[in-house]
Amino acid sequence: MRDKRGVWRGACTRRTCPADCTEYDREDGKTSCGYCGCPPGEHREVTAPQETSDAPSAASTSSTSSAFHKISDKRKESFGWVKLAKAGKTKFGNSILPAFHEAYYPVSQNPVTFRRDFLVERDREFSVKEEASKISRLIDFIRGDNSAAAGRFLSTSFRIKGEKDSTTIQNNTDKLKALQERLLQIEKELQTHDATLFKSGGRHVKQGRTTMHAFNTEQLDCISNLKATVKATLEKLEDALKRVKRIYKVERTTRQSRKKSSSGTRRRRKSRRGKRRE
After folding, report:
1. Does residue 163 form part of some domain?
2. Are 141 and 100 in contact (CB under 8 A)?
3. Are 153 and 165 spatial neighbours (Cβ–Cβ below 8 Å)?
4. What is the DSSP string of 55-110?
5. CA-to-CA dists, residue 147 to 106, 157, 172, angstroms
6. Number of folded domains that form the chain
7. DSSP code of 151?
């Protein structure tokens, strides 16, 4: 999907990324991008979907978007536009309405049914983006430097502070596994919805559904990046947990051995003192 500047969402790289892209390097060598809308994700080239007879060209997108903004406010409001949008959902709805109107209006010209269908799609897309963003923030926190997080355990040379490190690692592992399960559910929901957007042959998107398909494609790519990050993090935490348990198992064995040795020595000394009294 193209954003308001005509740039394909998720298609930025270090070389072609817009000037306002917020990018940063991660410990695993990948790069996250605030512009893509799905950090932590890997920068990579995303090829724009092939245009079919149902998909609008870049020129028509620009002209139609411009034409939509020329419509009176009252008319736009009948389609679902909010004049003084303040909430996140209504602002998001206003941002996607021009492209949605361009694609969907030819198949639903009744403002009542158009508005109904648009609001359903707006709520769906906003919900998916919000949850993906929330999961992304949770992953970032778990990978961060907070004392309750697991960031320091992602380094192969991390310093073990105590046996309680195993509890910290396990707690964060459980959280990541729960996020991983939710990502799989979201992915399945997107794939199921996307399948309904294609014609019976399964090769072409139905008329009016191009923006829905573009959104699903973008979010599936985002979910894939998040899943990859979770998987890589879980693997590192598994190795870290084994290391902590191995070290403290050796230390416990050593302490127990010393304790037994000390106890035996005391018994022998006590026995010798008793014999001397006799």
Report:
1. yes
2. no
3. yes
4. SPPHHHHHHHHHHHHTS-HHHHHHHT--TT--SHHHHHHHHHHHHHHHHHGGG---
5. 55, 17, 11
6. 1
7. G
CA–CA distance, 132 with 228 (Å, rounded to integer): 14
Residue 98 domain-assigned? yes
In a domain, 96, yes or no: yes
Structural domain harbouring 171: 57-240
Q: How far apart are CA 197 and CA 52, in angstroms?
A: 14
User: 109 in a domain, yes or no?
Assistant: yes
At residue 23, what are phi and psi to the nearest 5 degrees?
A: -125, 155
**pLDDT 10s digit of each residue in the chain, 278 long?**
444 445 444 444 444 444 444 444 445 555 555 444 444 443 443 333 343 434 444 444 445 556 787 889 999 999 999 999 999 999 999 999 999 999 999 999 999 999 999 999 999 999 999 999 999 999 999 999 999 999 999 998 888 888 889 999 999 999 999 999 999 999 999 999 999 999 988 789 999 999 999 999 999 999 999 999 999 999 999 999 999 888 876 555 555 555 555 665 666 666 666 666 65
Question: Looking at the DSSP assignment, which residues form a beta bridge with residue 23?
Answer: 33
pTM given for the model: 0.67
Structural element, H or E, at residue 24: strand 23-25
